[in-house]
DNA sequence: GAGTGGTCTAGACCACCCC
DNA sequence: GGGTGGTCTAGACCACTCT
């Protein structure tokens, strides 16, 4: 683990362990440099990481402060990858409805930037939170990249497997959100009624080298659909 | 303007003018250093800025590449501040329904971290895109910070005024998204029907020093509600 | 004016991609 | 192995806040 990542983790741990609140002041740069025995730039890199994640904010001429948001039970729309990681303290489970190798739809092929003759893994899951249906998810994985999947992997965290099992590096994602009305079939899975509100999130995940490897559409139960986004200045 | 901001702007301009597409390669670090006559760190800082904004992605050992998303007409959920800035090429207009000084609701007071006796500016607007209703917005501005507003300012960009007119620095924001069904009154403003889907976005805007100054709730017309989010690795 | 964060530099060395 | 991006350092100097 890199120094600046380690330091960021330490600072974050410190904030949690001391249950610091929004606006609480952290030690100044000089102190942090001495405390961790690294150069100023390294501390700054750590703090930038934490700032980007919404953990702290820095005020020039004043200090480094803790940033906290006031609401529980919201799903973060950043850092997303299937959010198994986001809702640490929430019991999320999955039921696999289908796992198969097939040819992609035109839409999936376009988004994955492959031809319609190339194989993809198709995965359809229902996800539950607190025994309630949270969402229905359909994913298309480019089989040339994600070479193997089975039921066990798919019931657990697919992304952990891609990282650790396949040794691939996940890079970035583009998500598109739409609000609409539930179709009959979706409503059935979610325990709602046709015509009820829904939130669709389509996401294209790319490897670190820019190759798209996963196109997924998640349809959320509107009652559970509580999301939050922390934005940082840098252009506000 | 700082060197690294200037360089980032130049690179972004270069990408636009040459209509570069996703995956197109930019000059290597050494070239950029020479071209702009600055140190390596400064170039790296510029590239980090662009990466954070979703303009490029970098691959170690390989190069710097252009990042583009494939869909038009989506509203960015980051860099948000009322999105006058996001939809550069879209004609967004506002109709002010109300502008007054009042005492905050309990909810607004809590989110602005003030007492219910302190004055706030209350602004209610309907926003249109292409002559169609996009959203209804209610905002509460802490009057101790945003000391003055009038109809002209409120019809235009409130945030530009806060920055330039009042000389305040806007820092960061926390947004909370909910999906639900439209109430009678909201439906009226949006030209939809009671019970139709809606997307509510509540946002608390903070100054650079951490003080909350604006609490707003925007209710979107679900037909126009197309948003996108670009996420970067750093934890994926 | 003292304190504190931010920018920028020059250079050493490391980690990864791809041929 | 050559090319390329990433980390880390030590230090000079700048910009903002607060009292």
From TrEMBL, chains A, B:
Pfam families: GntR, UTRA. Keywords: DNA-binding, Transcription, Transcription regulation. CDD domains: WHTH_GntR (cd07377). The keyword Membrane does not apply. Residues 1-69 form the HTH gntR-type domain. Transmembrane segments: none annotated. The keyword DNA-binding applies. This is GntR family transcriptional regulator of bglA. The lineage of its organism: Bacteria, Bacillati, Bacillota, Bacilli, Bacillales.
